[in-house]
């Protein structure tokens, strides 16, 4: 049996995991909301529950003190995994149809939709924060409009919600592109090219945007190159960290959208050599991320500085949450693996 070692890329990562104080209560409420959407069979819902997606939300937003803000974050993380599970098994044409429906609902949140409208559209009309500087979320009924009411209650700025809406648009478009490449078995030629797509397929930027909901950080501060670089590196660490730990399961089912697989093609490497290559890349980027955290831009007042530090700490929390959740979740079959010197020795799963 062929084995390989998963590198422990967080062996010197200085940010430990914490849990959100509201998770026990809010996660159950969020799961009931997912169940109410009617998009999964009972068997699929059972697998969804077993994955404990709320765990990543709890560690990604551990310092969110407002339970309404945390509920928004928890709902959105669940929504993303729901979309991922639905679209991963579809061809490009079907994914395109669904994303067109979602984008239309996203851009026309006040539209009623047809009586037989696909549930995918209803989910986006009533569950995604569709608010920009000149439009309000549509409310269908007391039950399915509660998400919009919760979002309104945290009084987010128009600029933050515009960021979120634009990035969610990019996410759905990237999902189409990923499906097209999956249909043609296209593996990206370089890691750089791969990351250009991967940065959008996970919707992590949208998740970063939710960190800003309670803040009022000036745009010129957020636009500082150092903050932009922190966001990009944090985004890459989340995406590639997931790729490292999900590689075995994904390669077994024939997935090609993975940084390790791209490295194998780009450099002609074996599984282990590619894993080591990506592990070294990850370590270099964690070092750069930590260095940038010590070089934040100056702020005009103490409140802005405090909010900026909390936002940047939230980026680090997301990197931590992604890695820790992947290790603990049954989704990638790593929860019972024993850590050895340098990482986890695991059997290479056979292709299905």
From TrEMBL:
Keywords, alphabetical: Lyase, Magnesium, Metal-binding
- Keyword Transcription regulation included in the entry's annotation: no
Its cofactor is: Mg(2+)
Catalytic class of the enzyme: lyase
Instruction: Give the GO terms filed under biological process for this record.
Output: isoprenoid biosynthetic process
Taxonomic superkingdom: Eukaryota
Question: For this protein, what is the EC number?
Answer: 4.2.3.-
**Record keyword Magnesium present:** yes
Q: Which family does it belong to?
A: Belongs to the terpene synthase family.
Q: Which PANTHER family match?
A: BETA-PINACENE SYNTHASE-RELATED, TERPENE SYNTHASE
Q: What is this protein called?
A: Terpene synthase
Organism this protein belongs to:
Roridomyces roridus
